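Example 230.
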Amino acid sequence: MSTDRRVALVTGANRGIGRAIAHGLSKRGEIRVLAAARSAAGAHDTAEALGGAAVGIVLDLSDPQEVAARAKAIEAEHGPVDILINNAGVLYSGDALNVDVEALDISLRVNTMAPFALTQVFGAGMKARNWGRVVNVSSGWGSFSEGLAGPAAYSISKAALNAVTVSTAQALGHHVKVNALCPGWVRTRMGGQSADRSPEEGADTALWLATLPDDGPTGGFFRDRQAVEW
Ligand code: NAP
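Predicted structure in complex with NAP:
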């Protein structure tokens, strides 16, 4: 089955990699993009910046309970979501002895629990319709095989997002492809201007995973469209 006339929701679409993913999906023409930002102004500006090719929607990921309720409201207003891109993320610095518990709490809520809540709500419909794609924008810093090498709250939350990827892929069956990726080091507010990749380059593997064919992989972790170790 092709992705014709699918609906895709991209979190954190107002800037950075999320903006590039929303742009990449909307310019294909056959996918209706819901570009999510945490504020009404951000949603409005994002839709304008995408030239009207996407619908701007408000979605704050700070509270997983509210996220689930909001996800149901979004489907009631915009119809079923077929492609979910969990892109939004936060990064707090500090190793495990030098980071506030509050920073770990918000990192887990935005980077891990909100993607889980969105996947539960939208994934149920995808499974019932026998088609769906869930893309979790993770990080090599969340990889055990790469040594959980980032700041503690970030690495812990992204490692947990990787676990969410495997667990939800198991629950959603083979018609719904759930995968995680590392975008590389990308020039965004989070990555800084010294990073070696443009947002468009950082978006490439996410766009590939969002539009996988029916025989594509599920429950995997990718960088540059290649499987990598967890
Ligand atoms: P970015 O430019 O800092 O953008 C982060 C996005 O997340 C923004 O749209 C931000 O919205 C949104 N966000 C943060 N907290 C939110 C909340 N509570 N509710 C809703 N939205 C929220 O970062 P980026 O580099 O594009 O990162 C995108 C993803 O790639 C993240 O998951 C990040 O961990 C991952 N990643 C990035 C790099 C890199 O080198 N840049 C490397 C590996 C992985 P506001 O504008 O409202 O804050």
